[in-house]
Amino acid sequence: MEESKMAGPVIPDRYREAMGDDDPYLAMFEAPQKLRKLLKGLTEKQLSRRPAPGKWSIKEIVAHLADGEVILGSRYRFIAAHDKPAIAGYDQDLFVEMLGVENATTEDLLDDFEMARMVNVGLLTRLPDEAFGRVGVHSERGEETIDTIVMLYAGHDRVHLTQVETIRTGLFPPKKAGAKKKGSKTAAKVPARKAAARPAPKAAKGSGKAAKAPAKKNPKNPKKR
Length: 225
Prior knowledge:
The chain is mostly helical.
């Protein structure tokens, strides 16, 4: 619905442009909290509103990110442990349509995304350096390494964060100071995730500070097939 199946270059130009020179590993670590900030102050009704027929709502975008992160975790593991495993593509629209998004709250979907992302960040933290150059064979894109996938999905995050911001600004522009109507109710906020007590990734334990992203930086530029 929101994006066509990726073909051609391993990493679409819009994803590369969205990342610029930023560290993709750090970007992936920070994405859930950036998304949470974008959703702050919106009601469930607002989050479920589609900007146009045939376009995803903010809630559906969050569901898509959560689904993708679960799939992503399995790809990391297969590539790190197997020799050139086959990596199946999937229909993202069917996932959003068929997996009961309407029966979940956006808060729950956001929690799912954040928890799955932190599990995967923990994996990336502990993998040996040589694992990042191992190859899987995607059914549509061909050969790609873990480094390639990280860059791809970091850019994917950025594109969807911009999309969420655009929808929010277009449908629910901020009210001017003093414009609040009498008797109006304050919009429900998206609560902090319920799994906040989950142990931090390995690299951050015992620091007494906020968890840090995996230390792997400046990944090798993935080659186009």
